[in-house]
Every structure is written in structure tokens, then in C-alpha cells.
Design goal:
Blueprint (H helix, E strand, L loop, with lengths): L7 H14 L12 E8 L3 H13 L2 H4 L10 H12 L3 H6 L3 H7 E4 L1 H13 L4 E9 L2 H12 L11
Parallel strand pairs: 1-2, 1-3
Length: 160
């Protein structure tokens, strides 16, 4: 599932997979759940989160409605969409509070991003995909993901 860093969505996706797999004679447990989202990791966590807010603003109005657990206020979605439509992506991003940002992006320091990814693993995700732009620079983000984020993950936990 793209556009989500929300651990609660792992259970939702499992239910939806089971609804189709069982009638088809397939074991739902054989279908892995993968979640991925915009990722911005940097030693400067505040700058990474500010960039992630701008990136998320561009698609929040679409993906928020697809997440029945998010509960993003309609007035917030409306205002974000209005600003994005006016080409004011950074202004739209500034409206996104931390709790909402964390549902739709991996962002912050390597430790913050690792904690978000670990929450998905603990919820039973089989894989986590870190989407672009990766960092404040693509090369820097990829380097931090491979060198600082991945070593912090315990991928043996949470598998169901």
C-alpha cells in the first residue's frame, strides 16, 4: 500500500486481503503486507520533517480518504487541497500536524524514521518501502537509510 506509514493500516489491509483470498481458496497468511510512503531522513530532523510536510501536502487530500483509521479533519484536508491547488505546497505542508504527518510519511532523524518503520514491522508488515525524495538530498537520504536507519530495525519482530 503506497502513501501510508500508518501501523493501523496493516490490520485493515489484512482484513481486505482475507476477504478476497479466502473465497479464492488462498491462505491470507501467504500474502505479505507492504506499506510505503514519502521518506525524508536527515541529521536535521526538523528540516527533514518540513520537507516531508511539503511532499505529503501534494497527495494528502487523496490518500487520507483511503485510510479509514486516520481521522484527518475534513477542514484540514480542504485547506491543504486549496493551497496545493494554488501552487502553495510549502504553505499547505505547514498546516499538517505531526500526528497526521506520521501517518503518511517517514520523516525526521534516522532514529525517528527507524522507529516509524519498526512500528510497521511490529504491526505485521512484511516489508517497508522508503519512497522518494529519501532525504534533503537523494544521495544523502539513501546513505542514511542504508547506513543509519536499516541497522536500527529488528525485522524478526512482528511477523504474523
Amino acid at each position: 500500500m503506497g502513501g501510508s506509514a500508518n501501523p493501523a493500516m496493516v490490520g485493515v489491509i489484512r482484513e481486505r486481503v482475507a476477504a478476497g483470498a479466502v473465497p479464492a481458496g488462498r491462505d491470507p497468511g501467504e500474502v505479505g503486507v507492504v506499506l510505503g510512503a514519502v521518506t525524508v531522513v536527515d541529521a536535521d530532523g526538523a528540516a527533514a520533517r518540513a520537507r516531508a510536510r511539503t511532499e505529503v501536502a501534494m497527495y494528502l487530500a487523496v490518500v487520507a480518504d483511503l485510510d479509514p483509521t486516520a481521522g484527518v479533519p475534513a477542514d484540514l484536508l480542504g485547506r491543504v487541497k486549496e493551497l496545493v491547488d494554488a501552487g502553495r505546497d510549502e504553505d499547505a505542508g505547514r498546516l499538517i500536524p505531526d500526528d497526521v504527518l506520521d501517518l503518511f510519511a517517514f520523516s525526521g532523524t534516522p532514529e525517528q524514521v527507524a522507529a516509524q518503520a519498526q512500528a510497521l514491522i511490529d504491526a505485521g508488515a512484511h516489508r517497508v518501502e522508503f519512497g522518494t525524495p529519501h532525504g534533503l538530498t537523494d544521495d544523502g537520504g539513501v546513505e542514511l537509510l542504508g547506513g543509519a536507519v536499516l541497522p536500527l530495525l529488528d525485522r524478526t519482530r512482528g511477523r504474523r
